[in-house]
Amino acid sequence: MQSIESNALEPTRHELQTASPGEKLIRFLPVYGLVLLTVFLILLFSILLPNTFPTLLNVRSILSDKSIIAMLSLAAMIPMVTGKIDLTVGYGIVLWHILAISLQTWGGLPWPLAVLIVLLLGAFVGFCNGMLVEVAKIDSFIATLGTGTVLYALALWHTGGRQVVGILPDGFYAINGTMVFGLPITGFYVLVIALAMWLIFEYLPIGRYMYAIGANPKAASLNGIPVQRYTMAAFITSGTLTALAGIILASKLRIGQASVGLEFLLPALVGAFLGSTTIKPGRVNVWGTIIGVTILAVGISGIQQFGGSFWVEPMFNGVTLLVAIGIAGYAQRKRSAARKLSPPSKNEPISSTPETHSESSN
Predict the structure, then answer these.
(1) Given a cut of 70, is residue 2 above it in pLDDT?
(2) Taking the model in full, what pTM does it have?
(3) How many CA atoms lie within 13 A of 130 on its CB side?
């Protein structure tokens, strides 16, 4: 059973060739509407809050607070490309940030070795998720929810409900605390990861294969694509990236506690889902995900500077998630109807053909 469909809704070359300038503008507006809204919010808050919002201090604060969410959104996006969902991005970070500290303070391991162990464990959990989904044939939502709950239980057991505190090496603190060009290094982590993922998904065969799997695994398999291998690779990569986010969180907090981490799940999913409504609407994509996280960060920062209460952020994230899923679903239905009325272009990929979409909907 498919958890996420992957069908691009951006205008095709054939559509743009036959469209008038006004029609082109209308077709491109949904594609870049969220980008324009982000720019509008930045300008609006900069005008209304000239002393606090358009400042380097605020930029540093946003990058420091939201880089981990951006990383988790990118991690969640990877299985979504193959039509799956990974909820362990929210649960796993709880255990990984605790282990990154406890392996050093309780286990006496050097920080590079502790980091390596956490990354390997994250990859192993991703492998387990892939096995549950592809071999045991459990729906990805149920499988990763179960795995995530187990990880959270292990975090509670490992800490005994107490904080993990200790003196950590300066090298470990530098993972999060280093400044580059006056900005937190975590923002550059996200940029490098986003660029790498963009190149892979847009310009390498593996990216096209994974999008094809997300659109229709049966059609992809008939075309010679090893569906099981690529789907498991997506979960392994997602698990590794989640572990990296946990390491950065540990370096930032400098203590480990099981009560920290779960609050990242919803905004991470919101960023990934919201990203599927822009740049390439109807299809999860890297820059759309970055825009999704950015508009969340800008909106929440502006509202809080206006004096918003503590409940504003979860309310904003929840409402935005519902809106994002609603827009994505509407866009897919509209595109599907349009596809049935017009023949496909020869240049369109497998994930956009009518046959692919009709099979994946069954």
Answers:
(1) no
(2) 0.84
(3) 23
pLDDT at 348 over 50: no
State residue 95's pLDDT score.
Answer: 95
pLDDT at position 356 is 36
Phi, psi at residue 10, to the nearest 5°? -70, 155
Residue with tokens 């507006």, as numbered in its chain: 29
**CA-CA distance, 189 to 276, in Å (whole number)?**
22
**Six token digits for residue 305:** 């500077």
With contact defined as beta carbons under 8 Å apart, do 260 and 33 qualify? Answer: no
Q: Which two tokens stand for residue 175?
A: 């993972």
Using CA atoms, how far apart are residues 170 and 85, in angstroms rounded to an integer? 36
State how far the alpha carbon of 216 is from the alpha carbons of 38, 86, 212, 242, 355, in Å.
32, 19, 6, 26, 9
Exposed (0-12), middle (13-18) or buried (19+): which is 333, by Cβ within 10 Å?
A: exposed
Distance of alpha carbon 8 from alpha carbon 233, whole angstroms:
22
Of 114, 107, 105, 77, the closest CA to residue 246 belongs to 114
Give the Cβ contact number of residue 41 at 10 Å: 17
Residues with Cβ within 8 Å of 137's Cβ and at least 6 positions away in sequence, in order, are: none
Please tell me the distance from the alpha carbon of residue 355 to that of residue 218, in angstroms, as a whole number. 11
Name the percent of the chain lying above pLDDT 90.
Answer: 56
What is the model's pLDDT at position 345?
46
